[in-house]
Each structure stands twice: as structure tokens, then as C-alpha cells.
């Protein structure tokens, strides 16, 4: 993720009061500070999907004379090194046209590498540690992620299920997935994952949990996403991709990191639980034996 832009605090503070078109432009500024510093206003407007005049109106709503003042602020932050992104020069390069499968695969791999590396920025590490604190302290962790975000929520649930039964996956059959949240309280936590376009049921489930006093830990894509505004703590991930699909890989990475941090805090208890889990899996023959490991009196091939 990018480090905060110089107007992030002002944008977040005024976001809910902005008209929808200004919100679209504001979100673009929050999520793409590199573009704000390096691209023309017209190009930014094109990428944000708004008329150029919208960018000017937004600047004035933020107390500036015009959008050029916005660009000067962000350019200054870039020169000072306070806009920290994985490869600053990459923002200057126009979107690469398709040049065949090998070129696209390479571009996607490099993009994913930058996004995963961005999770190691200090601000994101602070959020990960805070999220791990809240999740570890919870009596029970309810996990919610729908559609493309289901994999991240389920993977977190699966990893911690190896250590015990503290997690509840809200994905029941027959449309009953959210029913279990009725038993949650202030001592529990809802871990919810959602990125644009946001699944309605995830946002409504998070709102219900928050109204019942259940803290919400979010994995989402923007400071002003509907989920981030509900959450007690939010870990932000990038979803941009050279492909026309947005990427879920950073969400999976965050899920793995959080599960690992929680497991590590359990220390000897986690090791004992994993021992019991492995014994049960072996008793049922769930996995094929590793190559070279003796099995039923012979050597596996």
C-alpha cells in the first residue's frame, strides 16, 4: 500500500459529506497518490472516471485554490520521500498495452510482488499488529467474506481451525451464512473481507455486528470503503492488476499473516493443538505420505 498522501486526513474527514462524483475523485486521490503527484489533472480525471472539472471542485472543497495546488502538495511529498511506494518511477509509465501472454504474465508477477512487499511498510505493519491483538484477545472469531473475498476469510478460518474451534465461518448453506453472528458479543470479533465492488451482505453483516457491540476487523481496499468506515481496525490492501480481474492475492497474504501472528502468540498451546490435529489427519489418511516416508511397512514412492 501507499503511504498516506498529504490530504488523506482532510479527505477522510469530509468524505461522507461529498456528492457522489466528488467521492469518486476523492477515493482516486486516496488510493493513487503517485498519480496525483505525477500525472496531469486531465489524465487523473480520465482514470478516475470523472470530468476534469470535478477534480477542481474537489480541490476547492478541500480548501485549495485549484487542482494544481493539490498536485504541488503531492509532488513535494514525492520529492521529500514521504510518499513511499514500492517503485516510484513505475507510476510515470503509462499502462502497458498487451504484448502477448509472456509480457502480461511478467507484468502481473511484478505487480503482485510490489503489492506484497507493500505489506511490510511500517503503517501496514502497525495495522497488522493491531488486528492480531484484537483477534487474539477475542473469545470467538467470526469470519465473513463473500464472492471473490471468500477465499481469504475461509483460508484464515481454516488455518486457525488447525489450532482449535475459536473461529466460525459465516458461509452456511441455504442462505443461512450470517445466522451464527446472532450469538456474537463484545468479547468476540468479526473478521470481514470486502473490496470494490463490495458485497452487500458483507457490509450489512458488518453493520449488524458493529451495532451489537462486536468489534470489526476489516481487510479492505480503501480508507473510505464502506467496510473500513464500520471497522474498529482495518488492514488495507491493493487490488489493482494489469489484468481486467482485480487481484485477491494481497488479501490472502494478509489472512495468512494474521493467522500466523495469532498462532505464534499461542506458543506451546498452538504446538500441542497442531500435534493433535496432525495425529487425527494421519489416523484418517487424509494426506498422501511424503516421498521417502515409510508407509504400511514399505517405502513410499
Blueprint of the fold:
Layout lengths: L7 H7 L5 H12 L1 H6 L2 H8 L3 H10 L5 H14 L20 H18 L3 H16 L3 E5 L4 H12 L5 E3 L19 E5 L6 H12 L4 E5 L5 H5 L2 E4 L12 H18 L1 H16 L10 E2 L2 E2 L2
Helix pairs in contact: 2-5, 4-5, 5-6, 8-12, 9-12, 12-13
Secondary structure tally: strands: 7
Count helical runs.
Answer: 13
Order of helices and strands: HHHHHHHHEHEEHEHEHHEE
Helix content bin: 40-55%
Strand order of the largest sheet: 2-1-3-4-5
End-to-end Cα distance: 45 Å
Radius of gyration from the CA trace? 22 Å
Give the amount of beta strand, in percent.
5-15%
Classification by helices and strands: alpha/beta
Mean pLDDT: 82
How would the global form be characterised? globular
- Can you tell me the residue ranges where pLDDT is under 50 for at least 5 consecutive residues? 83-98, 297-301
**Largest sheet, if any?**
5 strands, parallel
Q: Can you put this structure into words, describing what you see?
A:
- 51% of the residues lie in helices and 9% in strands.
- By secondary structure, it is α/β, with parallel strands linked by helices.
- Strands 2-1-3-4-5 form a five-stranded parallel sheet, sandwiched between helices. Strands 6-7 form a two-stranded antiparallel ribbon.
- Helix 10 links the parallel strand 3 (189-193) and strand 4.
- Helix 8 (122-137) packs across helix 12.
- It is globular and about 70 Å long.
- The N and C termini lie far apart (45 Å).
